[in-house]
Amino acid sequence: xxxxxxxxxxxxxxxxxxxxxxxxxxxxxxxxxxxxxxxxxxxxxxxxxxxxxxxxxxxxxxxxxxxxxxxxxxxxxxxxxxxxxxxxxxxxxxxxxxxxxxxxxxxxxxxxxxxxxxxxxxxxxxxxxxxxxxxxxxxxxxxxxxxxxxxxxxxxxxxxxxxxxxxxxxxxxxxxxxxxxxxxxxxxxxxxxxxxxxxxxxxxxxxxxxxxxxxxxxxxxxxxxxxxxxxxxxxxxxxxxxxxxxxxxxxxxxxxxxxxxxxxxxxxxxxxxxxxxxxxxxxxxxxxxxxxxxxxxxxxxxxxxxxxxxxxxxxxxxxxxxxxxxxxxxxxxxxxxxxxxxxxxxxxxxxxxxxxxxxxxxxxxxxxxxxxxxxxxxxxxxxxxxxxxxxxxxxxxxxxxxxxxxxxxxxxxxxxxxxxxxxxxxxxxxxxxxxxxxxxxxxx
Length: 444
Ligand code: EPZ
Known about the structure:
The structure is a single chain. By secondary structure, the protein is of the alpha/beta class. The protein contains 13 helices and 24 strands. Strands 17, 18, 19, 20 and 21 form a 5-stranded mixed β-sheet that branches. Strands 22-23-1-24 form a 4-stranded mixed β-sheet, covered by helices on one side. Strands 2-14-16-15 form a 4-stranded mixed β-sheet. The longest helix is centred in the middle third of the chain and has 13 residues, at about 200-215. The chain binds ligand EPZ. Ligand EPZ binds near residues 32, 33, 134, 317 and 340.
């Protein structure tokens, strides 16, 4: 059980009665896919680092505990504000790493900072959601390109390196994690690193801004190239994490799926422009204000669409599941081609048990180049709508699908029992309180 500063209360079972529009306000805090990486950046310095707008989510608690286990300090100096200091960091022991890998994908990102400080870093096995194999070959190859040597002894793999050397690296695919891996390693390498085919997600830009505050020299160039000039040392930071655009999109989909109206405080248009375009195209409407964005259904009916997920600035794969729930309520036939993960439609089976009409295909139903065509992965979906949904018993398989089941249950007639809901707490702070605040009927 995590004992971190941001230990999130685990809720394992939730019974929801649907059929009512969700109306009211929710407030976003720091982005789940930004906060833990920024916390890892604090390992690159011995100075105090302050991180603000911190959500109480499991990944923050896991990384807090991991930093402490490495000899670092993490204190919640006031609600939502963490102070970290890695002055007394110790090399990571295998047992320590074993405790944390398997729970999250974040520990792999400590390789760069540990190599820079100690010349050695164990390679964790990885956890995270069940949405595909999620290997780390891009990470390892990039670190080897920077001069690290992999020692793979019967699953106790570790990396060693006297001093990381800047290099020209091209990612096979614009992987978010591998891009973060290279950035966190190259900032302390000797010389310049030019990373091409890099991911450009807003959460990566937030991490780059933190590193720039610490003294790093990183430029984001055209054609997905990120250039990092290695520096000898880095100082502390004081940073307010960006809000969670993925959570904002989930609430936006909940609004139109239940024909309600939700104001998402702190949502930023700049982070969500592709999502907002597609949202409008299917019949969603929104009003952008300084304090946030309000979402509702523009008219009586939602419209079907053809959609492909992609790396940023494309339609982010993490928008896909909640968006499909809304498409089950849209008039006509929608097509979704998931090009980032090979198995990110696992949640569809339960949706069909709730009355949805979704068929999965191995073919690439879209124009984007995709790594999964003809490789026996059902990574395209055809959704026939609108279909009335009814309650069901559902086990949550992963974070984003978990929230999507919540949306489906709230759009359905009757009661649904969701189990394994602790997975949703990984990324959605105070979910129960937020749902109650929007008028959701939760049978305790
Ligand atoms: C990050 O995962 C996010 N997680 C994911 O969000 C998000 O879906 C994903 O980026 C894509 O945007 C966090 O930031 C903690 P990738 P990451 O490396 O970095 C393959 C959520 O719900 N790949 O961009 O692990 C991989 O299998 C989570 O918030 C390799 O083959 O994603 C996938 O098919 C889910 N080898 C594709 O690349 C590697 O070494 C994209 O993965 C690494 C990745």
